[in-house]
Amino acid sequence: MCRQHAKWMACTMCIGLLMLAWSTTAAMQADVHVSRPEAKEHSELEATLYVPFRAAAGDRRAQGRSFQVSLAYPDGGQPHRVAWTVTLAGSAPQAAVLQQWSGQDSLGASALDINLHWDGCARARAPPHAACSPAPDGLYQLRLTAIADQGQGNEEVVEQQWQLAVDRGSGVRPHVPAFGMKAGTGPGATPDSPLEASPYRVVYANLHSQTNHSDGGGALAACHGAQEPQTGLFGPLDAYAYAQQHGLDVLMASEHNHMYDGSDGTNGTADPAAALALYRTGLAQAAAYTAGHPGFLALYGMEWGVINQGGHLNIVNSDLLLGWERNVLGELLADVETPKSDYAGLYALMRAQGWIGQFNHPAYAGQFLLDGQPLGYSADGDAVMVLCEVMNTSAFSNNDSETETRRSNYEAACNRALEAGYHVAFSSNQDNHCANWGAAYGNRTAVLVAAGTPLSRDSLFEALRARRVFATMDKHARLLLTANGHLMGERFDNHGPLLLATSFSNDAGRQAAAITLFQGVPGRNGTVTPLSDQPSISLTPAPGPHFYFARLIQDDGNVIWSAPIWVMQGEKTRGEEAQWQERPPVPEKVAADSTANGHTSK
């Protein structure tokens, strides 16, 4: 412990000034925390939408199918009124609505499942008993909007969107070149032109889970939600062994930073030494498991923040515990004081320390506020936030057969972060609170690490900083996006035409059913829009900054998202050049001459 404190004392003067600036805020929060219990974590609206991508065998002609809306509000049985709407429309922006369902329900201690049926007809403006006009073959989008306590000060909004296919046999599936093939850039090259073998290999990770170091580790038979902090049966070593046995290459135990006092609120009698010792134990267990199990990487870190008026993010490589809570003696229950919900200050600290992070299950509105803006941009935040969860399974799933149907989509929030100017890649994790690490579903965060080198903290963090990542709902899938030969995750200058090309493979034999290339403008704070429904396209962008990414839907409905690629087209203004040259910090332990992602690390 002394060694860790010595390390902290050796930090740069900027950190000292940062901590001084935080002192007043932290002191005010300490007074509040000791005198008043805080809202429990996970006391929030949960709303998911299960959408079969294809019609069942008996509905192949009509193409109808049933959907399920699942609603829950774990708040100690307190009643909450939820208004919900499900809208079926075409997949293009401003597409016509085919049908809509809506209702209002009261949620208490029990969850609610609402079953809806669609008969395959387009009925938006037709009388209720009009003859069926079959929906044409194609891709459609089902959107759920659920609002809890509407019109009250604690109103919450959850939006979900999933695609479905109407396919009576007349549709044409896209031909996507096999993974490992990418577009050439020389004369006569086509999107199918093969290049040399990839210098990377794919490892599959779950970068968001809990154990009994916070509110996870619950035995499957009795686990239906978050555990009381530090009461679960299973700890990090159990989690790593389980994840490895279930085929994962990487598991991160991301424990809630404010539960090291054994409380969901603030434990006034907590011993700071015990809290810090538990965090150190987790770090040591991860290192020991990794050393004893070559080929598997065990990570230990923290999920920082609170949901209510905050937002959760993972810090994946901090050896110091951050927090804001104090006991009745005024002793800090952490190594470093970080005021709750002060994201500007946190980002600055992370940047100075070389830490990197992930936006966890981000809400479109009301979280990660900077100057009142949700997912507000800062250069510090852009330098350290490398991932954004685009899809997760239910945090409270006790499914261990990879068939969980409660799945959440955060694509709208991640797109908002990209449009704000963040350079984040998509990730997909399980947020496990029950003892089923990696087994709730087949979703993974897939990372392209350097081939020929052992899987290690260094190799993984280098790949995350380079944003060489894709998010997948299928652990057998691989997806790649290139732009003029540059790999997804890169930032580069371009003049003239730009060739975007994707490649895809699935070891279990699944095929691509649909693919969409998307485009956006970093810093515009606008809307990400579809660019093409083909696996490759050549275009000449307008001068200025752009980003592009691919979303592929398999024939079983599972979705894969590539990392974005950022392109500066043509002439740059000085302001654009300044933002474009922001690069995430690379600690000394990562080779300074690494050029695997197309630019020299700094």
Give a short summary of the structure.
With 602 residues, the chain is of the alpha+beta class. Among the domains are: 46-166, Immunoglobulin-like; 205-478, Alpha-Beta Barrel (TIM Barrel).
Secondary-structure topology with pairs:
Layout: H1 2-9, H2 13-35, E1 46-50, E2 65-72, E3 80-90, E4 97-107, E5 112-118, E6 138-148, E7 156-166, E8 200-206, H3 236-245, E9 250-256, H4 272-292, E10 297-304, E11 313-315, E12 322-323, E13 336-337, H5 343-353, E14 357-359, H6 379-384, E15 385-393, E16 407-409, H7 411-420, E17 425-429, E18 444-450, H8 457-465, E19 469-472, E20 477-483, E21 486-487, E22 491-494, E23 498-506, E24 512-520, E25 529-532, E26 536-539, E27 544-554, E28 559-562, E29 565-569, H9 574-580
Helix pairs in contact: 2-5
